[in-house]
């Protein structure tokens, strides 16, 4: 798959001494949806700002579409769209004029048919003549996306696009992102809603304190870092884990009444070991009344990475 964006050793240190980006290396493939996860203040927005020319990096290199953004930023920037976190409009202008104006800012010729297509795709056509100040918060967020799509970008940044919107609107936006993928648009999504990454992303990156802790395919992350937890509620308490089960990651809780397993990976090893433990308990004539089993989610993995600070 072609590379559309290359970031090498990107750093940003503010005059106050705050390090917002700390040697970030990242490669984005053409046509993928990449989710960048991180807590508030992790560096997500700073990274986007550096690529879009809003933030001046302290060090490192950025290449987009083969162009060095330090020396040839105009050629690359017109092919990049950005949906920022903050609402930025002339609140007294109409929806249609604001979107058309954004298209012109990137040197694109007026195209009423394209503007109509974008507005209809976001359920904004009926609102096209309304002043933006009269719109709901969710509709204003849709206008931000329309402005970003008006010049037909090949690479689209969505910075917390569903922050503060209701579940129905969030689902609508997810569907719109799916349409963009079908059209060949590369999407980089920053979010702290883990379900968004699980729903849409091909690959996931985790950033914290300006450092990328992990970048990998979503399935590979689950296989490598996913875990299984199983709790066997025993009919009678045990004084110790049976010797025949010492090969497994087991310990006793609740005064010996609960046998707890934690281990495996997202590729199925944990499930297989839980089944083997159940069979071993049966052979040892150790009855259990219930078995509760939980597979770790992408959110669990994310939380563990941020807490540990390492992949």
TrEMBL record:
InterPro entries: AAA+_ATPase (IPR003593), ABC_transporter-like_ATP-bd (IPR003439), ABC_transporter-like_CS (IPR017871), ABC_transporter_ATP-binding (IPR050763), P-loop_NTPase (IPR027417). This is ATP-binding cassette domain-containing protein. CDD domains: ABC_DR_subfamily_A (cd03230). Residues 5-234 form the ABC transporter domain. It comes from the Bacteria. Keywords: ATP-binding, Nucleotide-binding, Transport. The lineage of its organism: Bacteria, Pseudomonadati, Pseudomonadota, Alphaproteobacteria, Sphingomonadales. SMART domains: AAA. Transmembrane segments: none annotated. GO terms for molecular function: ATP binding; ATP hydrolysis activity. PANTHER family: ABC TRANSPORTER ATP-BINDING PROTEIN. Pfam families: ABC_tran (PF00005).
């Amino acid at each position: 798959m072609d590379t559309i964006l290359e970031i090498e050793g990107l750093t940003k240190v503010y005059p106050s001494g705050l390090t917002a980006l700390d040697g970030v290396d990242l490669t984005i493939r053409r046509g993928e949806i990449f989710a960048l996860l991180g807590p508030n203040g992790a560096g997500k927005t700073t990274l986007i700002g550096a690529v879009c020319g809003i933030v001046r990096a302290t060090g490192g290199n950025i290449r987009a579409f083969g162009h060095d953004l330090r020396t040839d930023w105009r050629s690359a920037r017109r092919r990049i769209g950005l949906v920022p976190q903050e609402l930025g409009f002339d609140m007294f202008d109409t929806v249609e004029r604001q979107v058309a104006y954004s298209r012109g800012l990137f040197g694109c010729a007026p195209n009423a048919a394209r503007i109509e297509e974008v507005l209809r795709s976001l359920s904004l056509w009926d609102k096209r003549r309304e002043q933006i100040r009269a719109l709901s918060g969710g509709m204003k967020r849709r206008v931000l996306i329309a402005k970003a799509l008006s010049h037909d970008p090949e690479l689209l940044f969505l910075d917390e696009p569903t922050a503060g919107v209701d579940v129905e609107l969030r689902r609508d936006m997810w569907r719109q992102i799916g349409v963009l993928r079908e059209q060949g648009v590369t999407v980089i999504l920053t979010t702290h809603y883990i379900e968004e990454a699980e729903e849409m992303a091909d690959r996931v990156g985790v950033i914290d304190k300006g450092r990328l802790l992990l970048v990998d395919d979503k399935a590979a992350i689950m296989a490598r870092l996913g875990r299984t937890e199983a709790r066997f509620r025993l009919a009678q308490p045990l004084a110790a884990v049976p010797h025949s089960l010492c090969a497994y990651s087991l310990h006793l809780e609740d005064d010996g009444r609960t046998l707890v397993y934690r281990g495996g990976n997202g590729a199925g090893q944990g499930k297989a070991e839980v089944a083997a433990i159940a069979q071993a308990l049966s052979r040892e004539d150790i009855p259990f009344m219930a078995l509760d089993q939980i597979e770790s989610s992408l959110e669990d993995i994310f939380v563990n990475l941020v807490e540990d600070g390492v992949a």
